[in-house]
Amino acid sequence: MHHPLDRLPNSSRSIPSAAANWAPLRRFIAGEARLGRLMAQRGWTAAPYEFFRFGVKQAWACLFAAVAIGLMIATWQFYPKGAPLARYDFLLLGMVAVQVAMLAGKLETWEEAKVILIYHIVGTAMEIFKTSVGSWIYPEPNFFRIAGVPLFSGFMYSCIGSYIARCWRLFDFEFTGHPRRLGLIALSVAIYINFFSHHYIWDLRWLLFAWAGWLFLRARVHFRVWHRHRTMPLLLGLVLVSLFIWFTENIGTFTKTWLYPSQKLGWSLVSIDKLGSWFLLLIISYTLVSLVNAPRVRELRERQTDTRRASGPLAKVTSPASSTF
User: Fold this and answer.
1) What is the rounded CA–CA span in Å between residue 125 and residue 123?
2) How far is C-alpha 20 from the geometric centre of its chain's CA atoms?
3) Which of 2, 10, 76, 115 is 20 to 30 A from 86 (CA-CA)?
4) How many whole angstroms from its chain centre is CA 235?
5) Shortest CA distance to 193 belongs to which of 114, 301, 201?
6) How does pLDDT run across 83-142, given as a tens digit for each residue?
7) Cα–Cα–Cα angle for 213, 179, 53, nearest 5°?
8) CA 269, CA 262: separation in Å to the nearest integer?
9) pLDDT class for 40, splitting at 50, 70, 90?
10) Which residues of 123-144 are buried (b: 16+ CB within 10 A; e: fewer)?
């Protein structure tokens, strides 16, 4: 869907508003466009406003994950002990309800739902194996489980896929030097196999880190927060997201939703070594999203347009494109 305001200055190329991907947000596009033009008139308002937009977009991308974390904290604090419905089963039903509500309310696209479902299956399969070898445990009893793994646990992985898919749309991702998807698939398959095989043969994660570094070394992601694309190394972006996942995992163990062997006698921070594991898992999730959303190559002409706009005074930034959410 294209909004009539979504057009680059001095260009006939229209830009789809990210807000238009979710029906409930479309009504705010025109109002945000007016606010954007007002905030762009002075530098001291433009910079904070762009930072604010970045935070709002990140929060929207984290919607599914935020609900999941909120449910974990709320049930840890307030869920009654001895309730007929186990806490883990309540979490499962709650997350399914949220998933259905987001699709029904068009707060999530079917493309995003596909990624969530695939990663849910991939994550659950790994959970079944990892709990069987004692890597971590789910200490509470419940009914909806497979081989000791509560079915809600797959949604923890789904949150990651949901976040990447939503960011891809919200920030209008474009890429330079992006790895070929065949290479990403090969790396992801190797990563997934290693999560199982390292219990029996050599752990090849350092080789996998090197492989990932080689694939992503020249890759840059160009993301649009406001009126122009900014850029950063894609590898750095993946590391930062992995760090955030490690932080949320500490919330999961603090709320006793799952526990590592070292936490049975009392809570402690999850080992920083797990950051590497989440980085590798994130690559699998990123690959799945890239199969649904084909990476768009950043054209030289578009980069030059952004450069010209960036060199002009902010007071002249009246383009409606700068107001797309």
Assistant:
1) 5
2) 19
3) 115
4) 15
5) 201
6) 999 999 999 999 999 989 888 887 777 877 887 788 889 899 999 999 999 999 999 999
7) 90
8) 10
9) confident
10) bbebbeebbeeeebbbeeebee
Our measurement of the distance from residue 124's CA atom to the centroid of its chain's CA atoms, rounded to an integer in Å, reads: 18
Q: CA 215 to CA 85: how far, in whole Å?
A: 47
Go through the chain and tell me how many residues it has.
325
| Both structure tokens of 201 | 């043969």
Whole-angstrom Cα distance, residue 192 to residue 284? 8
Note the pLDDT tens digit of each residue in 58-91: 998 999 999 999 999 999 999 998 899 999 999 9
CB atoms within 10 A of CB 83: 11
Q: Which residue has the tokens 């065949």?
A: 182
- Residue 61: how many CB atoms within 10 A of its CB? 20
- Return the structure tokens found at 240: 């930062």
**SS3 (DSSP) at 140:** coil
Residue 233 corresponds to which tokens in the numbers above?
A: 């190394």
123 and 156 in contact (C-beta within 8 Å)?
yes
| Per-residue tokens: 46 | 């433009």
pTM of the full predicted structure?
0.82
CB atoms within 10 A of CB 239: 14
Q: Rounded to an integer, what distance in angstroms lies between the CA atom of residue 147 and that of residue 172? A: 41
User: DSSP readout, 110-134?
Assistant: HHHHHHHHHHHHHHHHHHHHHHHTT
